[in-house]
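Why this split exists: single-chain examples teach little about how molecules sit against one another. For that reason, every record in the complexes split bundles all components of an assembly together and asks for one structure covering all of them. Below is a record exactly as it appears in the raw files.
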Amino acid sequence: MAPAGAKKGILERLDAGEVVIGDGGFVFALEKRGYVKAGPWTPEAAAEHPEAVRQLHREFLRAGSNVMQTFTFYASDDKLENRGHTQRFTGQQINEAACDLAREVASEGDALVAGGVSQTPSYLSCKSEDDVKTIFKKQIDVFVQKDVDFLIAEYFEHVEEAEWAVQVLKTTGKPVAATLCIGPEGDLNGVSPGDCAVRLVKAGAQIVGINCHFDPETCVKTVKMMKEGVEKAGLKAHYMSQPLAYHTPDCNRQGFIDLPEFPFSLEPRILTRWDMQKYAREAYNAGIRYIGGCCGFEPYHIRALAEELAPERGFLPAGSEKHGTWGSGLDMHTKPWVRARARRDYWEKLKPASGRPFCPSMSVPDGWGITKGHADLMQQKEATSQDQLKPLFDRADKGL
Amino acid sequence: MAPAGAKKGILERLDAGEVVIGDGGFVFALEKRGYVKAGPWTPEAAAEHPEAVRQLHREFLRAGSNVMQTFTFYASDDKLENRGHTQRFTGQQINEAACDLAREVASEGDALVAGGVSQTPSYLSCKSEDDVKTIFKKQIDVFVQKDVDFLIAEYFEHVEEAEWAVQVLKTTGKPVAATLCIGPEGDLNGVSPGDCAVRLVKAGAQIVGINCHFDPETCVKTVKMMKEGVEKAGLKAHYMSQPLAYHTPDCNRQGFIDLPEFPFSLEPRILTRWDMQKYAREAYNAGIRYIGGCCGFEPYHIRALAEELAPERGFLPAGSEKHGTWGSGLDMHTKPWVRARARRDYWEKLKPASGRPFCPSMSVPDGWGITKGHADLMQQKEATSQDQLKPLFDRADKGL
Amino acid sequence: MAPAGAKKGILERLDAGEVVIGDGGFVFALEKRGYVKAGPWTPEAAAEHPEAVRQLHREFLRAGSNVMQTFTFYASDDKLENRGHTQRFTGQQINEAACDLAREVASEGDALVAGGVSQTPSYLSCKSEDDVKTIFKKQIDVFVQKDVDFLIAEYFEHVEEAEWAVQVLKTTGKPVAATLCIGPEGDLNGVSPGDCAVRLVKAGAQIVGINCHFDPETCVKTVKMMKEGVEKAGLKAHYMSQPLAYHTPDCNRQGFIDLPEFPFSLEPRILTRWDMQKYAREAYNAGIRYIGGCCGFEPYHIRALAEELAPERGFLPAGSEKHGTWGSGLDMHTKPWVRARARRDYWEKLKPASGRPFCPSMSVPDGWGITKGHADLMQQKEATSQDQLKPLFDRADKGL
Amino acid sequence: MAPAGAKKGILERLDAGEVVIGDGGFVFALEKRGYVKAGPWTPEAAAEHPEAVRQLHREFLRAGSNVMQTFTFYASDDKLENRGHTQRFTGQQINEAACDLAREVASEGDALVAGGVSQTPSYLSCKSEDDVKTIFKKQIDVFVQKDVDFLIAEYFEHVEEAEWAVQVLKTTGKPVAATLCIGPEGDLNGVSPGDCAVRLVKAGAQIVGINCHFDPETCVKTVKMMKEGVEKAGLKAHYMSQPLAYHTPDCNRQGFIDLPEFPFSLEPRILTRWDMQKYAREAYNAGIRYIGGCCGFEPYHIRALAEELAPERGFLPAGSEKHGTWGSGLDMHTKPWVRARARRDYWEKLKPASGRPFCPSMSVPDGWGITKGHADLMQQKEATSQDQLKPLFDRADKGL
């Protein structure tokens, strides 16, 4: 295995027209495996249960990922603290451990290490540009010290905060990608996807796109709008999409957070591997070349992306040794009627049933219509008390 | 950690009225992680990728499992061979590696090791009782040598073959559990669940029940019928259920294999953690005390069983440190309307949407109506050829 | 037009192996047209708005009905009174008017007039056999005087009461048909469909079967069970089915009354004309020769029965002049893609969407589990008061 | 009853702020009753079966309609001829009969008679403005002679043709309403709803709005856009909506014609009476005062509009004598659990099930993307031949 330094960088790959396969969302995958707590969503597992995090990295690598994102989501000290995490590990310990794990596994294959920053409680609480930038600065210190290959500013609902992040990340000299968690309606201040993209490119991002909050169909549609905006402005960029692995046709502007099923009853919405192949093809056709995933993606979802784009890339991922394309492995199944499913035609046409005749196919999302600056979004150090929860419960019941 | 020998055995636990939490299905979980090939479904990963198998064992242990089943499903030489597995590992190597991994992780907590045998191609191909028993005998040699704690004969569609298996397993002197993969309509020869159970108990099984092929609701219903049969016959037994983690209200007698979504589009049917708590409670109320899972179960599903039965058992599993019961961890979520979901009332009532408005809620299962002895079920050493597949495809298309 | 007397009677037709097409349910059809009040469900429209009742008779005749059932459902004085009907018309006036309307329209084509009696409040309130029989006797006085062609005892949930009705009807010397509103689970006292049928035949009914409460699929299945019972007992009968025009896969023993959608939100369950053709064929194949409908049937549903069985009967109904079989009339549609639907293959395969993504596909029926003799079913002369309704509302809310 | 001349005219009513309740769609209602043939959709029943048409008028009047539209849809000689109608009646005979029937029933209550013209085959076949206007002129001769109360230009997919129609209708001196069958995306030439409305008002229409092709929700939304356009242009108009009684969330620009269920499997989409009350309220809140229906509306749907707006209008329709508002009549139902449904709260919250677990909730509409001028839309005198149908079938199959 060549040393990391010998690998082609992210921009070299994209400039050469290569497809870069991203990884999937660690928070949701590790929640199901028992190492992340939904609610706080903090990444202490990097230090606490490194074998579990390492194993997930390996599975994504094996599935075809070219990028190992450090598992550092929400790993700032203030977040770790106000989300009730008992301080067995400092933010720095977690961040360092996450970088080491990502690098260790990246070295086992053709993958780069990316360090990421996300939107901050401080922005929602209306802190100043300087305050917010200070937080980003502190987070990237570890990434610089651990020499990650590039940086990602991801999961921003307001383009203004993402611009600030990009400006800070650019100071490192490393390539910068920036993705918003918005849909075709634009960011939470009403800035259109096209305008968002232009602002991110102008701030210095070489790669722009969408991650999280919406299903692949919606994300690809939104990145297309970003691309049109960038091209109309006479600018250039690479494009990236890392959507959910959940079908979300019923989402409003705030995305899957607002669906009543978030986060503990999303199962019926999980995409199949065939849905993923469709996504990979549509993203490719839309001109997107950095194609990955976010919450809900399991290793086999990433493998499906790599399999769909194998003709363009010229190779299959390692994990395909355990997967016949388009179900062809089923020709070794015991039952003849299952062998009859060993073909593309069958799976591509199938409309899978939910097995839930008492459930609807779409939900009405919550629509509280509040964003940055609203009192309910101000964050406090203490856990939410029962007294604070009671009016929330009442309001929710009324809305049902 | 006490040595395995110091642990209470499976019968001691059940005789004492304790709840034993089983583990989940390795084949499906590892297929999603990239280590098992759907179609052959063979367990070479035990030798080939031990870190992946070990990690999954650990996650189930952490989720509350009291049993580590050796990952030896379909690990007989004839199966490994006729399913096209390149012989990097012998059946013996795989079986030994699987036993070692199960023991290693079991020793890290309060879990027993169980070795398992399943239905054979030979029975479907009408081989003699002696031939079939010889296969079982060979499989248990490794289990005896590795000194597993007890044995499970599981995944049998015909009670006759299961009886033969139980008779062989009994020769080891170890406790024996036996589960069929049948529903309320009985086995594929039309023997009712009650009669099946009586025959298994008479053959020597101390624990009887159902695994795989049907959803929890159906499995619990079928085990109840078994229990009624056993009690009516004046016999005694312990009861066990290890159902699918998929909703299957539309299945016929052959179970989920016949659903058009099997095995690559079952996602919309996956049970939520709340569905699992309901299952655990219903199984407990039905008098079942060995409660586990099969295909589709992920670690968080097993944890849900352990959490539901925590009042009876007196403790929560280790993995609950990352899970507030009934979503209570959401009181630390950023968005106030998500904090409003931090309660049992919310999740218990929610009817989750599929996000798939173009899909139905139930499917028409294949119904080829053939079983043991039919020419199409005779197994051959060679992979199925395209010439053999063509008529299967045509027949399947006609049925659509 | 030949005088009624010259027509072949109902038994002559059935004995000759002819298919007899019944009519549809007047109560539901006239409720939608504004002439029947849901709740009381009484037939005062026969006297109050004869033009509306006559028109509906004509539409069913035109659609192919060979039987005009007098619109006399619930037309006993006690029912009219205790259901709050202002006494503009006596029961006798309504019954006479209904007979005249049925005869008038029957004379315009090849149809017979049938007078019907149904289950009584008195039976549910545990009145004696004599009391109940007296009610039936009073009802048939008008039918005898108006010389209807045959009699139907229909809509009975308890076979015992139906037997009493048959015994009374037999005293007229006219042919007697008897249908229960039960499903495969049997009557509300748990008598199986086979045993019910045997008892009705022994009581003197020449035609037996099922009407109302369940969808065609369930009704045909239940009539099959009746036929098996009758044949096993060495008896002979003709068979008849008059099911709902609503899909009811989710019903329990009490039928569609218990569905939460009854009676004002049943629209999504309405059968298409193609569903009806399927029903006609299955009923015919099951040996049923008197094939009609009940609640929900509109004239075009009856026409679909007549069109499906046109090959057996040798002619199409008059109404088919306005209907190309299997959609063939669409070859004259303006849009070419609609012309492409002018064929059997298209409509037979189509799985029609509900256009209701926020609704489930099945409902949980109410299951209050009370029947004949329960205090809540005792009927009173006065309308239910708000004080009486309050505990019902509370109980219903709790069950949601 | 006062002579028609003594009634307040349509504009007097609307100018006074009154709510005008329209009627429902005759073509679909009479198709189900057996008097209209789907495909040709011609109104010969006005002359052929006047009793059926009269009865439907009466039912709508009784339900609360203030307008009796003459049943003259597609009643031009060229349409009658090229749709294969055997010439038992001339177009003039049909038109005259229709006017007489509408006037007869209107005189029985507080209703006006409206004569209507619709889009022409000639426009789609690119005939000149003069040719198209000549057709409209010929159609209104009968309306003038029969002295209808006002005129409606309805069911236009292209605003240009609707403008021509309005210009012709204005020559009569009678009030003119104009409705397009378009959705929020605008007419088939891409003109926005707002611009369409402005052009219609400038052409002389005093009432503008939407009819047919989309469900109430979509129609109200589109009329709102029209109103915004008109107000922005500094103009004034009255607004009207006559939507489908089918849920169509999945429609594209061409409306329900393109749904695969059109026209013979739309049943699962039929609106309930409660859906209708919601529509009436939303239409009223949007400033629409002429509120009626189109295809799929049955008399009870119109009654629901009148009941919802009874507080504003000060009275209930005659048909409400047979309908307790919000299901209150159920307090007289036999079963107590049905009596528990006698209240608004119950019906307003109910999500009705389809009873069709094997069907989806939404469909993919056909999208042939052709309109005015395309060869496939040119109309011929002869019926479409099998040779012409074959390529349509093939194209349709491919699209599935």
